[in-house]
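Exam revision sheet. Question 4 asks you to relate a sequence to its structure. Input first:
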Amino acid sequence: MANEAQEPKYDKVTFEQAEAACRQAAAAADEREEAAIEWAKVEPSPVQKLDEATFSKCVGQSFEAEGEGGKATLVLAEVVPMGEAVDLGTGGPGTQSQFSAVFNCPGEPLPEGLYTLRNDDLGELHLRLEPVAGSSQVEAVFS
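Answer key, structure tokens:
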């Protein structure tokens, strides 16, 4: 007895049944798309909500920094204005003040890189820090 190839059996459907199945599949796809769009909506990051005045209230406070270049406890030394506030370009109200936050480092400054900073008042921030030439300080620039 040889294995005979069997032809697949297909159910016959009417045009109306096929159309209904297509509409049902399209509705399910629309629901998944709406759910994906809702899931992808992103709240502004904490950095976008911070401004010069908020950082100024934290001068003298400690920030635990950890990142590419190591770990250190930094102290916010000063907040330096860098110019006029700029439009965020979101199509709505809102501006971002331009400033730098300058931190004192114990010993040598951390090397340039991305760091997670933790502070009791500001929470967790993800910032790029750069050494300030000729000092033991690092700064984060907001522009």
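Marking note for examiners. The chain has two domains: 11-41, 46-142.
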